[in-house]
Design brief:
Elements lengths: L2 H29 L21 H7 L12 E6 L12 E4 L4 E4 L6 H4 L4 E6 L4 E5 L2 E7 L8 E2 L4 H7 E7 L5 E2 L13 E9 L12 E6 L5 E6 L15 E12 L3 E7 L6 E3 L8
Parallel strand pairs: 3-6, 9-10, 12-14
Antiparallel strand pairs: 1-2, 1-4, 2-3, 4-8, 5-6, 6-7, 10-11, 10-13, 11-12, 13-14, 13-15
Length: 279
């Protein structure tokens, strides 16, 4: 074959491969797109739970590398990543407890909005303890330091997770500071009558980081707000507050293990005597 013919044959081969790659990427992207103002196409209505979240947490308290039982949990979505304080995961809860789903994707609030019913097919998933509660994802790779891996793609999410089409009102469980327990970790709670108590390490009154709150009897609980949250730099009001968020238990820098409330947005802080907390 002449040099010129060989040259054009190589060019044609490169173009053909490039077109195939472009079409594959375009197909994958289009499959993952949906109207951000409505619920996305549902791979199937939410299924009926075969085990409560509390019972599942009890059985898997120490973690399970890979679940082989054909079990299903279901619950309402209680968190949103829209304000940036929750990242690549979301929480659901039923009447017995709450649990974290390691989605591994962005803009989760568009796919699983607060108040939608979600069911999780547990077979093939993994579970691991986290902040006093339990998280569900995929089995971690052998080389990973994590016990649970993110789902990371819509295809894998749809394989395990289905959602309903109706949005319900989510009402946080009202508790007192001394009611906090690991059984309640992962649930959406609200504690009233809290005042911010600045610590020596606090350089301002912003929401960001760990912040120390106390009730009228001096019982303490912390809040956690990521630096990347939209409301991280806003100032904490001086009045008594009702604070809503996911209850967790973990290490607070310099303070050891403490109970923590992780709010979803600035709206989860309300001046007391307000009944508007929740969704």
């Amino acid at each position: 074959m002449c040099y010129i013919c060989n040259y054009f044959e190589q060019i044609g081969s490169i173009l053909y491969k490039s077109i195939r790659i472009f079409l594959a990427v375009a197909t994958a992207l289009s499959a993952g797109c949906y109207d951000r103002h409505t619920l996305p196409d549902n791979p199937g209505e939410a299924e009926t739970a075969t085990i409560s979240i509390a019972e599942f947490k009890r059985q898997c308290a120490e973690g399970v590398p890979e679940i082989d039982a054909d079990a299903i949990i279901a619950g309402l979505v209680t968190t949103s990543d829209e304000a940036g304080n929750f990242y690549k995961s979301f929480f659901i809860e039923d009447s017995s407890g709450g649990i974290e789903i390691m989605a591994g994707t962005y803009d989760i609030h568009n796919r699983y909005p607060v108040g939608v019913t979600v069911s999780v097919r547990l077979k093939g998933c993994a579970a691991a303890p986290s902040y006093g509660g339990l998280q569900i994802g995929l089995p971690a790779a052998d080389y990973s330091l994590d016990e649970v891996s993110y789902f990371e793609s819509d295809i894998l999410l749809d394989r395990h997770i289905a959602h309903g089409t109706e949005i319900s009102v989510v009402t946080p469980a009202e508790i007192r500071v001394y009611d906090a327990s690991t059984d309640a970790c992962g649930r959406l709670v609200v504690i009233r009558g809290l005042k911010y108590v600045p610590e020596e390490s606090d350089t301002d009154r912003a929401f960001r980081g760990y912040r120390h709150f106390e009730d009228a009897d001096g019982n303490a609980i912390y809040t956690y707000v990521s630096d990347y949250a939209d409301f991280a730099g806003e100032e904490i009001p001086e009045s008594e507050l009702s604070v809503c968020g996911i209850l967790q238990y973990g290490n607070v820098t310099g303070k050891g293990d403490r109970y923590i409330i992780k709010p979803r947005s600035a709206d989860d802080y309300e001046v007391d005597n307000s009944d508007s907390i929740g969704s």
